[in-house]
Design goal:
Blueprint (H helix, E strand, L loop, with lengths): L6 E7 L21 E7 L3 E5 L5 H14 L2 E6 L11 H8 L3 E2 L2 H13 L4 H4 L18 E4 L2 E9 L6 E6 L4 E3 L19 H13 L5 E3 L11 H21 L3 H11 L7 H13 L7 H7 L3
Helix pairs in contact: 5-6, 6-7, 7-8, 8-9
């Protein structure tokens, strides 16, 4: 098969406000993370990875994609959190492409659909399109773009269960979804019971791919995608969080400790607070993980 040179481009949507008006413990208003969308493109075709989820963001990214002038052959979801796939069907319809994910990610997608009435649609009322799960798997979790293989690599638990990354060996690229973060506080609210060690193992799986570039699903758009720096920063944050969880007796203390330890992180304090509330709620006897996770947002 004839091959052509490929490249990638990234669009980062700015953080969205949430419907919750109560400020964070430091007095700041609540906003969501910036959301990264990656386009891996050849001369004619391209794949779109982890596009955003609200109507305004969908329009913004769809215009960006259309301006690149490529034929979209697949919409790829790296994991099941709705902010990275609730918009997929809109993009699939506009660009005539299937939605692709691993079987594990698809299973988590169904859980996020079930959670919509209790969380997503309350946080962004009227802003998220209808999003039934339409994703399909592909043989060996591999696609081909103008002669270049693109691999969905399963990495297990990161900020949710059964996540994956897209590895593009010929670019030295990993589109990492939420396996790695870049310049934003990390969501650790689903990491009780050994989740941080599982996340470290996922990072090692990504590192073994020897990427040069890593696009994090949530990143500061002013930072580059240098793989060594992104991996080191993500590991450092997990280590810092583990230390703080042992030291701090309340979610509020944990929040202030992490903000003080990472003054360079301009984004994601809402996710830091939500994750802290969920984890500390689970320290209570007979706590329900699903109830704790949902209640932490409000």
């Amino acid at each position: 098969m004839e091959t052509h040179a490929i490249g990638y481009a990234v669009h980062v949507c700015d953080p969205l406000p949430l419907s919750v008006t109560e400020p964070l413990p430091n007095g700041e208003g609540r906003t969501f993370q910036p959301i990264s969308t990656t386009l891996v493109h050849g001369e004619r075709d391209a794949v779109l990875i982890d596009p955003p989820f609200t109507t305004d963001q969908i329009e913004e990214v769809a215009a960006w994609v259309a301006g690149r002038g490529r034929n979209i052959i697949a919409i790829i979801a790296t994991h099941g959190h709705g902010d990275h796939w609730f918009g997929d069907n809109e993009f699939a319809e506009r660009f005539g492409a299937p939605v692709v994910a691993t079987a594990g990610a698809i299973a988590v997608m169904h859980g996020n659909v079930a959670a919509r009435p209790f969380a997503w649609d309350k946080l962004w009322p009227g802003q998220i399109p209808d999003a039934p799960v339409t994703a399909v798997t592909v043989p060996d979790n591999t696609l081909t773009l103008e002669g270049h293989d693109l691999h969905l690599v399963e990495v297990g638990h990161t900020d949710t269960e059964q996540t994956s990354v897209l590895h593009v060996p010929d670019l030295g690229l990993v589109a990492a979804g939420d396996a790695l973060y870049n310049g934003a506080h990390m969501y650790i609210g689903e990491s009780a019971g050994g989740g941080l060690d599982a996340w470290r193992a996922a990072i090692s799986t990504v590192e073994a791919l020897a990427p040069r570039h890593i696009v994090a699903g949530h990143k500061n758009k002013d930072l580059d995608d240098d793989a060594t720096r992104v991996i080191a920063g993500t590991r450092q944050y997990l280590d810092s969080a583990e230390t703080a969880l042992k030291k701090c007796s309340t979610a509020t203390e944990f929040f202030h400790t992490m903000v003080a330890r990472h003054p360079d992180l301009l984004y994601g304090k809402t996710l830091l607070w939500v994750g802290a509330k969920a984890l500390y709620a689970l320290r209570e006897p007979d706590a329900d993980p699903v109830a704790a996770s949902v209640a932490a947002w409000f």
